C-alpha cells in the first residue's frame, strides 16, 4: 500500500551573491508501505534552469522496482548553454552520496548529503507575514498537530 503526491508548478531559487535565479520543477513524492514499516520515496523527472547563464539540468528520481533494486536513486545531466550533450553526469542516492562524471574523464564525489551541515531556517515572525504565507496560513493546523 502506498500513497502518491504529484507536485505541480515550479519554484524559484535566487542566489543573491551571483544575481542568479533558478527555476526548478519538483519530483513526485510517495509514502510506501504505509501499513507496515513506512518509508518515503521520490520519483519522476525534474529540471533546473538559469536564465542568466543558460545552464540547465535534467534530473530523474528513480523509484525502487517491486523486486530488487535500490531506494533513493538519482541520475542527472548538466548542460552548458546551447549544448545538446551534457558536460557532467550525476548518479547516486539523493539522500546519500552522489558522484559526478565529467566529459573531461574526471570522476569525483559531487556531494555527500550525510556530511552536509544542518542550517536553521530563517523565517519571519508570524505577525510579519502576509495572510497567505505558508506558516501564517497553516498556523492553526500546525498548532493542532503539535
UniProtKB/TrEMBL annotation:
One protein family per Pfam: Oxysterol_BP
GO molecular function terms noted in the UniProt entry: sterol binding
GO (cellular component) term, any one: membrane
Superkingdom of the source species: Eukaryota
Protein name: OSBL9 protein
Organism: Rhinopomastus cyanomelas
Gene: Osbpl9
Amino acid at each position: 500500500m502506498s500513497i502518491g503526491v504529484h507536485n505541480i508548478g515550479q519554484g524559484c531559487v535566487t542566489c543573491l551573491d551571483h544575481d542568479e535565479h533558478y527555476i526548478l520543477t519538483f519530483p513526485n513524492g510517495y509514502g510506501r508501505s504505509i501499513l507496515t514499516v513506512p518509508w518515503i520515496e521520490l520519483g519522476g523527472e525534474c529540471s533546473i534552469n538559469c536564465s542568466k547563464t543558460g545552464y540547465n539540468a535534467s534530473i530523474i528520481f528513480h523509484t525502487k522496482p517491486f523486486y530488487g533494486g535500490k531506494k533513493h536513486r538519482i541520475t542527472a545531466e548538466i548542460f552548458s548553454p546551447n549544448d545538446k550533450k551534457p558536460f557532467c553526469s550525476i548518479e547516486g542516492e539523493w539522500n546519500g552520496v552522489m558522484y559526478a562524471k565529467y566529459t573531461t574523464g574526471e570522476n569525483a564525489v559531487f556531494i555527500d548529503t550525510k556530511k552536509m551541515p544542518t542550517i536553521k531556517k530563517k523565517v519571519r515572525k508570524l505577525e510579519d507575514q502576509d495572510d497567505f504565507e505558508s506558516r501564517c496560513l497553516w498556523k492553526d493546523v500546525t498548532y493542532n498537530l503539535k
